[in-house]
Design goal:
single chain, alpha+beta, ten-stranded mixed beta sheet, six-stranded mixed beta sheet, binds S-adenosylmethionine
């Protein structure tokens, strides 16, 4: 579906459009159209060898080695890091990304327009049920002309929230999205490789992990079970294969940061040396992650670590090639022992008392704090070997000489910047002229994430520093370990493009909710395009060099202080929610779907499908031939064709259609399509098929924990249930020529793990985490028009100091009235507290 033009939904609203050069054409198929790729495109080999495998035979290079060695290791000299199962190549299936949902610019503009209109019209107690209720309230209470904006990107680019394993997602980004060499910065916060269940989060609305809420997210369970079978060895293989792909995605001037704890920091650093090259190591940044020690037997580690590498730190000629902007922190010199002098307005200078040093309020009024700095250069300087006379006293040069020639010393004297200390001369540096000091490592001023949405959430300040040091507005930032979406949030806040992925649907729903419920500062751009950059605050820095050489004071740019448009509130820009197509078969115990030769059954493909079919019907006869009827169950009364959907993807309308056609070709009238998730329009397709012919179609949900329990299920029939869709009610009203509709969410089916039943829960029962309404569903891509959240806790908007009634954070079950438009069709998507989604489509 082509993106629609933004509409000017509000009277004063100005929706700007920023464009980017060289935005690529994505080859993203729409949902339901994931045709199989040609066989030779199905699997790619990822080379994971920078020369180390040659070292196995020291000094002997394999004859006919063809693959270029990207980081040249000397097998005889470089130490090599080994673990069980280390490989030098890996086959990865190539899976296209499917676009499941677009939160488009025009839809956001519409919502903003409507929120503003509602704010103008309604009495304060009447509120919107959606996230934009907060905006509406802001409009009502603040200056009426306050604008709401969002940064937009060229038509060809949309930020991406992707469900899937990072290995497959990255391979897909390389091959289908053409992102090779395009990513400017990567932030990875992988599991730390210690407790292999530590980053489970089972509920969207709580960071507690109760046993009763055991993860029911197949992908999450599989990701953990399959990934860590050999413990640390598996962990290193897991990181190795992903890091090779990270390198492919990074721009030559790009940076990669890995967040890790002290348990494995040394191993990951070795791995990075091997993959990125030790020469490209930039820094190891310890950052404080907590303020209170838990109490350990020995010394407690208060920090985690960021390992930072450049793709290519220096060019061949030795000039820095990694993009880098230093950050500056304003220094507080109170209590800092170097700053132990002060000067009075009459020029009188005094050393502070110990009390004054620690408490500047004890200094006399008008006192100017300063420190003394050495005039000696770090290495010997012939030209500085002279005796300098100040106030009639002769001062011999320090060991390395003076760092500035006699004329420079005269200038410093004229500026009254020289002060004797013993028999040496020193330079006077005032604290107020050097408030900003260049940020260094470690970061002792950071804390753990506050207001946690996710159990292993990173403090956004940490990611923000990495983003600001290494990217410009408009650059692409990628995080293959999305979690609660902190990297995407930071990228959005700072006008960077972003891509992020996670295997956990809970994580992705937390991230989605966080993005949509946040507001950001609106930074002014240089020429209207985000990529043109922001206008940063600049401050002067008077230095010894500038005074001695009679130069203008230097200027520094504070990249974390862009000029802000105070009259504007910014919300999240457009993004798309994607998943991997045809992901399932490989995912099933690591088997790769190999193309079937004529007449030969593929045992690997059969395995997954066979297990599911037999769990569904003991008498199912699995069909060896290709086609979408995977098994046939036959008794005296009935003959049923069974088709199984992908493990992580959704059952598409096309699969149902094809399965029914294949069944009919074999003379079978009843088809059961089993799936873990279904596209939103499947019920329509079922109805159309049943209307057209004598066929019967059953859509069957496979219980999310079916495979997680190791297939030892005594009652397999409890694993399957008819597709339970959200229960909605629609009221339409004809108001003159304009028909309007209101949708009410009545309830939703939630799978009860304990009783192994699917229970109907009322919409207000606390099980619905969020629901979304597409007012004019085109039958293909779901677009959020109205969004309703159950904020068990107040969302981030509170942090902005906006006063919002607690009532506004509870779930509203009725939509705002909306116009019935071209497609005369709505879609309602419900996300329950376990992160499961279900969608229903209804004609108006
Ligand atoms: C430590 S958390 C990241 C937390 C994140 N920094 C935040 O601020 O919320 C790691 C995340 O990586 C995800 N993950 C683990 N293995 C993955 C894989 N192979 N592919 C994609 N995501 C994965 C986990 O589901 C988890 O959400």
């Amino acid at each position: 579906m082509a993106p629609k033009e933004p509409t000017n939904g509000g009277k004063d609203k100005r929706v700007t459009r920023y464009t980017y050069d060289k935005v690529m054409e994505p080859r993203t198929p729409e949902t339901g159209h994931t045709a199989l790729l040609p066989a030779d495109e199905q699997v790619v080999t990822v080379p994971m060898d920078n020369g180390w495998s040659k070292a196995i035979k020291v000094g002997q290079l394999p004859a006919g080695e063809q693959r270029p060695v990207v980081v040249d290791m000397d097998p005889a000299a470089d130490p090599i890091f080994f673990w069980a199962g280390k490989r030098n190549r890996r086959e990865v299936p190539l899976l296209p990304l499917q676009r499941n949902e677009i939160v488009s610019e025009s839809r956001i503009a519409q919502i903003i327009g409507r929120a503003r209109k509602a704010a103008m019209e309604k009495a304060p107690q009447m509120t919107f049920g959606s996230i934009f209720a907060d905006l509406e309230k802001t409009f009502r209470e603040s200056d009426k002309s306050k604008r709401v904006e969002f940064y937009t990107h060229d038509e060809g680019w949309k930020n991406k929230l992707i469900c899937g394993d990072s290995l497959h997602v990255m391979e897909s980004l390389l091959h289908f999205e053409e992102l090779r060499g395009k990513v400017q910065m990567m932030f990875l916060d992988p599991p730390y490789g210690i407790r292999y269940d530590s980053n489970f989060q089972q509920r969207v609305d709580s960071i507690k992990n109760d046993d009763k809420d055991q993860a029911d997210d197949v992908l999450t369970i599989k990701a953990f079970r399959d990934t860590w079978t050999l413990g640390i060895h598996s962990y290193l293989s897991y990181l190795q294969e992903r890091l090779y792909l990270c390198r492919e995605l990074l721009n030559d001037s790009g940076s990669i940061f890995i967040q890790i704890s002290d348990d494995n920091v040394h191993r990951v650093r070795c791995l990075m040396d091997e993959i990125f090259g030790a020469d490209n190591f930039i820094a190891l940044i310890p950052f404080r992650k907590k303020t209170m020690p838990f109490g350990t037997t020995f010394i407690e580690q208060m920090a985690d670590f960021l390992i930072w590498y450049g793709k290519r730190k220096f060019t061949d000629t030795g000039t820095p090639s990694t993009k880098f902007y230093p950050l500056f922190l304003s220094q507080d010199v109170e209590g800092e022992f170097h700053h132990c002098w002060y000067e009075m307005p009459d020029g009188n200078r005094q050393r502070m008392t110990p009390e004054q040093l620690n408490n500047h309020s004890l200094l006399p009024k008008g006192a100017r704090v300063y420190r003394l700095k050495s005039l000696e250069p770090s290495g010997p300087m012939e030209s500085g070997m002279f005796i300098y006379t100040l106030a009639g006293k002769r001062y011999p040069p320090p060991k390395n000489g003076y760092g500035t020639p006699p004329e420079g010393m005269d200038r410093l004297r004229d500026h009254k910047r020289l002060q004797p200390e013993g028999n040496r001369l020193t330079f006077i540096m005032y604290a107020d002229e050097n408030v900003w000091t260049r940020m260094t490592a470690p970061w002792t001023d950071t804390v753990g994430a506050d207001n946690k949405r996710y159990v292993v959430q990173t403090n956004s300040e940490v990611i923000q520093r990495c983003v600001l040091m290494t990217t410009d507005p408009g650059d692409i930032v990628f995080d293959p370990t999305c979690g609660s979406g902190t990297t995407a949030y930071v990228a959005e806040a700072w006008g960077r493009r972003w891509v992020t992925c996670d295997t956990s649907r809970v994580a992705l729903n937390v991230a989605r909710k966080n993005l949509l419920s946040s507001t950001f500062d609106h930074f002014k751009t240089r020429n209207g395009a985000v990529a043109s950059g922001f206008i940063y605050k600049k401050v002067k820095r008077i230095t010894l060099g500038s005074l001695a050489n009679n130069l203008e004071p230097g200027e520094i740019e504070l990249r974390d202080q862009p000029e802000t448009d105070k009259s504007t509130i910014r919300v999240c820009g457009a993004f798309e929610v994607m998943s991997l197509g045809r992901y399932s078969v490989e995912d099933w115990k690591g088997y790769v779907a190999t193309p079937q030769a004529e007449g030969i059954e593929s045992p690997k493909l059969e395995n997954y499908i066979g297990v599911i079919c037999r769990l569904y019907r003991k008498d199912a006869a699995v069909q060896g031939a290709s086609g979408l009827v995977h098994a046939v169950a036959e008794s005296e009364e009935e003959k049923i064709a069974i088709s199984v959907g992908p493990l992580s993807g959704r059952v598409t309308a096309k699969q149902i259609d094809d399965a029914v056609k294949d069944a009919l070709a074999s003379g079978i009238l009843e088809t059961h399509v089993l799936g873990w998730a279904f596209e939103s329009n499947v019920n329509e397709v079922k109805a159309q098929l049943e209307k057209r012919g004598k066929v019967k179609v059953e859509l069957i949900m496979i219980r999310p924990d079916t495979l997680a329990e190791g297939l030892k299920i005594t009652k397999p029939e409890t694993l399957f249930s008819p597709l339970a869709l959200p229960d909605i009610e629609i009221k339409t009203k004809k108001n003159g020529a304009e028909p309007k509709a209101v949708v009410r969410l009545k309830g939703v089916a939630v799978f009860d793990r304990k009783n192994r039943t699917t229970d109907y829960k009322r919409a207000d029962s606390g099980y619905v985490s969020a629901w979304y309404l597409d007012e004019d569903y085109d039958g293909d891509c779901f677009v959020d028009c109205q969004m309703f959240f159950d904020f068990k806790k107040a969302p981030n908007i509170k942090a902005l100091g906006l006063d919002v009634e607690p009532d506004q954070f509870t779930l509203h079950t009725e939509s705002q009235p909306f116009l019935v438009r071209a497609y005369k069709r709505v879609a309602v998507k419900v996300v329950d507290v376990f992160g499961n989604e279900s969608t229903i489509v209804r004609e108006l």
